[in-house]
Please model this.
Amino acid sequence: MLKVKSFTLGAFQVHNYLLYDTDTREAVLIDTGKDPEPILQAIATESLDLKLLLYTHTHIDHVEGHGTIRQAYPDLPAWMHPEEQFWVEALPMQAQMFQMPIPEPPVITGFVTPGQIFTLNHFTLEVRFCPGHTPGGISYYVKEGPFLFTGDTIFAGSIGRTDFPKGDFQELMDSIETQILTLPDETIVYPGHGPSTTIGQERMTNPFVLDYLASLK
Ligand SMILES: [Zn+2]
Ligand SMILES: [Zn+2]
Model:
């Protein structure tokens, strides 16, 4: 059975998600927020076999804990979209903007491509390219859930900010329309901040989604 454990970390209350199968114990970690020791504890308590680290994007709050995870798992494959290199290089600037210490930049071992599928023994994760909040934003779709890990692209009743460098509102709404709303209504959405939701709920009630869909008619 597939399980999702959520960890809320750091000043921005970012959610990291540990997705795992209770039979094989294979696990995938989505993003690494500040002081991720509770994640390491959960991996130990549940005797999980951490296979992959996947980044939705590399804003500072989503990568701050990379060093701690890397120390515990020096060989862990870590993936992001190549366009996110912009925000990795801007980590010192991001730290200064929010008056936070500069984190260790994440050690990335692979670049995802749109449509790519990560295959584990009992589940898969599909890379859905969702630029707009950041240039290389990714949502990861697990059809066996069905679950969608959206980072800061869409939230319950809201959407990601597009007023940062390289943010683009039109691009964000286009990503939501083509990469997120095309998934089944029952898909559980696990965002980077705030409560989880479903595709159906957002399709029917998210004011940004409703405005955008109305503007297309
Ligand atoms: Zn963000
Ligand atoms: Zn965030």
Remarks:
- The radius of gyration is 16 Å.
- The CA atoms of residues 39 and 141 lie 21 Å apart.
- The pocket of zinc ion (ligand 2) is lined by residues 12, 14, 59, 61-62, 152, 192-193 (CB under 6 Å).
